[in-house]
Amino acid sequence: MRRMVFVLLAGVALAGVVASMAPASGQADGAAAPVFGVTIPPGYRDWRLISVAHEEGNLNDLRAILGNDVAIKASREGKLPFPDGTIIARLAWSYDRLEESEKAFGRPQTFVAGPPKNGVQFMVKDSRKYASTSGWGFAQFNDGKSADEAVQKSCFSCHETVKARDFVFNRYAP
Amino acid sequence: MRRMVFVLLAGVALAGVVASMAPASGQADGAAAPVFGVTIPPGYRDWRLISVAHEEGNLNDLRAILGNDVAIKASREGKLPFPDGTIIARLAWSYDRLEESEKAFGRPQTFVAGPPKNGVQFMVKDSRKYASTSGWGFAQFNDGKSADEAVQKSCFSCHETVKARDFVFNRYAP
Questions:
Q1: How many CB atoms are closer than 10 A to CB B73?
Q2: What average pLDDT score do residues A124-145 get?
Q3: What is the average per-residue pLDDT within A7-12?
Q4: How do B120-125 and B145-146 pair as beta strands?
Q5: Contacts 24+ apart (CB under 8 A), A115-118
Q6: How far apart are the CA of A91 and the nearest CA of chain B, in angstroms?
Q7: What is the predicted pLDDT for the residue at A172?
Q8: Residues lower than pLDDT 70 in chain B
Q9: Chain A residues with CB-CB distance to B under 8 A?
C-alpha cells in the first residue's frame, strides 16, 4: 500500500490546513506547494489514464487525467465520494497541429500533444487533513516547482462548481 | 517478458502475412482480426500513456495512445525503429462539451471524452511475422469484435506517410 506523505514547507503553514509528517521512502525531493503542502507524488507519469480533454481559451492545451491505484479503482466503480488516498494528476501539453496526418486524411484535422504546458496539477484526498476544503488538497507545479500561493488558493473555488461530483470534473473514459 | 500470440482466424489467412502460434497464457478469448491475425491484448486499458490527440473531421473524437512496457520504454528513449514486442493501442471517445466548466471558466471552452467511439486500434511489432508491412501488424476492433477485412487492409497505406518515424504518428508526451 502506498503511503502518501506531505512535508510542511517552513514558513508557509496556514492554520488548520496542513499537518507535518515524516517523509516516506521514495518521496520526490521537492518542496511542498504552499497552502495544502502537497509534494509531487513519485512516479505519477506512470499512473493509469482516467480521461483526456481539450481546453480552448487561454489554456489552449490537450490534457490527460491520470490516477493512482485508489483513484483508478474509484473512477472505474463510479462511486462517490473518492476515498482517502485518492490522488488525481492533470498533465497538459501544447495543442499542436499534426501535419503528417494531412496527407493521410487528405485534409488538416489532427491535433496532438506538443511540449508540456500549463504545469501539472494534483488533487489529493485526505478528509481529515483537508477537512476545510471538503477533504481535498490541491497543488500546481510548473517545471517541477510549486506555483505561488495565489494559484494554489484559486483551485477550490472553481472545483466547487462540481461539488455534487465530489469536486472532480472528469469521468472515467472506458 | 510478455509473449504475444496471434491466432490465425480460419479462412482469412493471406499468403505470407500471418503465422500461427499456440496461445499464451492470459490471452483474451477473442477472435483474431483478419489480415494480420491480431487479438485484443489482455489488460491494454491498464497500459501507460504515450500521448493524447484530437481528430476533427469525420472522426470527431478525443483519443489516447497507450503502450505496453516495450512501447513505453522505446517511446521515452525516442529511439527508432520500435523493437519487436512493441504494442501501441489507440483508444477514442466522443468529443463532448463539458458544461460544468463553463461556470468555472466563465465561458464554454472544455471538451472531454464521452462514450467510446471509432473502435480501438492496435499496432504490433514483429519484424519477422509482418515483414511485408515493415514489421507492423495492424488491427481495429469495434465493440470487442474485429472490423472487417477492408478496414484492416486500409491501415498501412496511411501509416506509410510517417515511414521515416517507423510508421508511428504519435510522439511521447512527457
A1: 15
A2: 97
A3: 53
A4: unpaired
A5: A116/A91, A116/A92, A116/B173, A116/B174, A117/A60, A117/A61, A117/A92, A117/A93, A118/A59, A118/A61, A118/A63, A118/A92
A6: 9
A7: 98
A8: 1-29
A9: 45-46, 48-49, 51-57, 59, 62-64, 66, 91, 93, 95, 98, 100-101, 103-105, 107, 109-113, 116, 158-159, 161-162, 169-171, 173-174
Nearest CB to A112; choose among B48, B51, B109: B51
Cα B48 to Cα B76: distance, rounded to the nearest angstrom? 12
Residue type, A93: W
- C-alpha cell of A51? 480521461
Instruction: Give me the interface pTM, i.e. the ipTM.
Output: 0.83
- The sign of the CA dihedral B49, B65, A171, B41 is negative
Grid coordinates representing B5?
500470440
Closest-approach residue (CA) in chain A for B109: A56
CA distance B10 to chain A (A): 31
For B162, the closest chain A residue by CA position comes to A100
- Give residue A159's identity as a one-letter amino acid code: H
Give the residues across from A116 on adjacent strands. A93
Query: Cβ–Cβ of A49/B62 closer than 8 Å?
Result: no
The grid coordinates of residue A131 equal 477537512
- Whether residue A156 contacts residue A133, with contact meaning beta carbons closer than 8 Å, is answered with yes
Cell of A57: 481559451
Residue type, B31: A
* Cβ-contact A105, B157 below 8 angstroms: no
Let me know: does B53 contact B170? Beta carbons within 8 Å.
yes
Q: What pLDDT band is residue A41 in, cutting at 50, 70 and 90?
A: very high
Q: How many other CB atoms are found less than 10 A from the CB of residue A147?
A: 17
Residues 6+ away with beta carbon under 8 Å from B10: none
pLDDT at position B6 is 58
Which residues of chain A make contact with B73, given a CB cutoff of 8 A? none
- What is the full DSSP assignment across A84-140? TT-EEEEEEEEEEE-SHHHHHHSS--EEEEEEE-S-EEEEEE-TTTTGGGTTEEEEE
pTM over 0.90: no
